[in-house]
Design brief:
The structure is a single chain. The chain has 13 helices and no strands. The protein has 274 residues and is mainly alpha-helical. It has two domains: 49 residues, no CATH class; 208 residues, MetI-like fold (Orthogonal Bundle), CATH 1.10.3720.10. Helix 7 crosses helix 8. It is globular and about 70 Å long. The relative contact order is 0.14.
Length: 274
């Protein structure tokens, strides 16, 4: 009976892995096929080629689009963690009137769909002179990355013992030194989790990137992939699309694999007390 349960468990795990990984595997195999083979279902290419990858970079400034995505996502992560850490310290460690209402307001902001604030953000971006510029995307992405960053860091920081701050104060440390030298290193797992989630959200964002950019050289990779076209307006270069999808997915997979231990630590922080 025990062996039967174990076999059923591993069959379920295998089925889940197959369901999750097969689409990426098929996209990878399709990106390595010549155009003539793309519509013949097969687990492996009959003929291997890198022509689709070369075409992605030759037919449009895809390398520049990748750099744009890296710059925007990196700046969003940096600003989200900086502002989120300061806000989390104030909300978790300081006592002031309206703290609960402020946390509720931050949570409420994250509930608004992007399309509901699109017109307002467009007018703000234009008024600031940031239309078709990367800083405009960074500013707009903070609308949905800051709320969950603040919530994750606040929840984690609440679990830290106050004796740490008291000991730092006795040693002559000020509030900034306590935050930077004592609390921040302990919050590192949660910061990695929040930063990775912010990076993924900024890397994959499409609606703001499509609305707030105009030229190919300022677009990020989701918009660049969506606007790929073939020889005619009714023809899509499926091989190029698969190659581009693989290229933009690999950095996310690498980040998750590198930081997986800290991600788990950050997500499970505060789950057990004692």
């Amino acid at each position: 009976m025990r062996r039967l349960r174990a076999a059923g468990f591993w069959l379920l795990v295998a089925a889940i892995l197959l369901f999750c990984l097969f689409p990426f595997y098929y996209a990878l195999m399709s990106s390595l096929r010549p155009p003539a083979e793309l519509f013949r279902p097969a687990l492996l290419p009959g003929q291997w080629t890198l022509a689709n990858y070369r075409a992605v970079f030759a037919q449009q400034p895809f390398g520049r689009n990748i750099v744009n995505s890296v710059l925007v996502a990196g700046s969003v992560v940096a600003l989200s963690l900086l502002v989120g850490t300061l806000a989390a310290y104030a909300l978790a460690r300081l006592r002031f009137r309206g703290r609960g209402a402020l946390l509720a307001a931050i949570l409420a902001v994250s509930m608004f769909p992007q399309v509901a604030i699109l017109s307002g953000m467009f007018e703000l971006i234009r008024a600031l002179g940031l239309y078709n510029r990367l800083p405009g995307l960074t500013l707009s992405y903070l609308v949905f990355t800051l709320p969950f960053t603040i919530w994750i860091l606040t929840t984690f920081m609440r679990e830290l013992p106050r004796e740490l701050e008291e000991a730092a104060l006795i040693d002559g440390a000020g509030a900034w030194q306590t935050l930077a030298l004592v609390l921040a290193p302990l919050v590192a797992p949660a910061m990695v989790t929040a930063g990775l989630l912010a990076f993924i959200a900024a890397w994959n964002e499409f609606l703001f990137a499509l609305t707030f950019t105009l030229t190919d050289t300022e677009r990020t990779v989701p918009v660049a992939i969506a606007l790929m076209s073939g020889a005619s307006q009714y023809e899509l270069p499926w091989g190029n699309l698969m190659a581009a999808s693989v290229i933009v997915t690999l950095p996310l997979v690498a980040l998750v694999l590198v930081f997986q231990r800290r991600i788990v630590a950050g997500l499970t922080a505060g789950a057990v007390k004692g």
